[in-house]
Amino acid sequence: MPFGKPLALYDQTVIRRPVPAVDPAWVARTAPGGQIRVPIYTLYHPAAPLTLTIQHNGVASGRFGALPITALPWEPGCPCGLGPVADAAFFVGLMLPGVRRLILHDGAPTTHALWLEGPEDSWVEVTRPQGIAPRVQQGGGRRLWDEVMQTWRRWEQLGRPRVEDLGVTVTPSAQWAWAWSSTTPLTASR
Prior knowledge:
alpha+beta; 6-stranded mixed β-sheet; 4-stranded antiparallel β-sheet
């Protein structure tokens, strides 16, 4: 290839492996009007499909697609109480990057446990035997359960957006999630 010859741009870029964020190089290599399709995951929730359209100014923006019904292995009666589970959990994952969610069972069919771990050696354990109020224990440098509940309240205040109501905008120097419209950027709770 001769030095200085421009690279061809793609009309469509398809990434099949889930990633935590959009690589700006994909935007740079996709032609205006082209699309990028990529599953985005958080440590709090499995991946959701994202379709971005490249604008003429090199900015990409688009919405998440609906989640498969089996996307979230969450037990009924989980102590999280986050309403429509998949939508709220995906929102929490977008807003609290670095917080990992695990669901554990102690073998008893009526006891559920949720474990969260995050930055600054932070952790949360929520257990709820059937018929008993949840017990929350947390430690480390951050109060993760408080952050999750604050983020959940924000999701409620925004009108409980479904995954399909959320999107991402990517510029050469930044990217952010948004709800309902790309003019309503969301910022992380922390």
